[in-house]
From TrEMBL:
Residues 1-22 form the signal peptide. The chain crosses the membrane at residues 50-67, 79-96, 116-135, 156-174. Keywords: Membrane, Signal, Transmembrane, Transmembrane helix. This is Urease accessory protein UreH-like transmembrane domain-containing protein. It comes from candidate division WWE3 bacterium.
Amino acid sequence: MRTKKVATLISLGLLTPGIALAHCPLCTAGAGLAAVIATRFGVSSGATGIFIGAFAVAMGAWISRLLPKKYVPHQETAITAFSFLTTVIPLLPLLTQYSSIYVDIGGAYGSWLNRTYLINLFVAGSVLGGTLMLISPRLSGWVTNIRQGRQVPYQGIALTFTLLILSAFITEVVV
């Protein structure tokens, strides 16, 4: 009886896939579709970009932890950056919303310190979302240290989503 159970577990292990070791184009397409639909409903590309950037960085960090360690220097950073780029760049033609910022620090108009810069809101939001995803574990560790080693239930995920939602809300209100 015991050998039959072991044989069943082995056969199930051989028939079912273990882990995915690639950046899933279907995930990117799904996230992109959700982003396009959100922008069609009136959500700005900046706010959408925040969540897409966070998704891309989280996916890259997840994949880098699954792969065997250190084939190349800075492997985790390279995989995370690759994931970010392969998620954000294909969505650029679909999410084109721009804003401008006028910088008047000095010099004649047209110099680096006195000109109007055009900003792609989706790219700016993606960079902000990716950055928030990268700093939220450190921020969670800081909160844990302040609380003398105690954590709030679901502290990491709650902190991450709070940062993302607040930044998306601010982006919607300000931009």
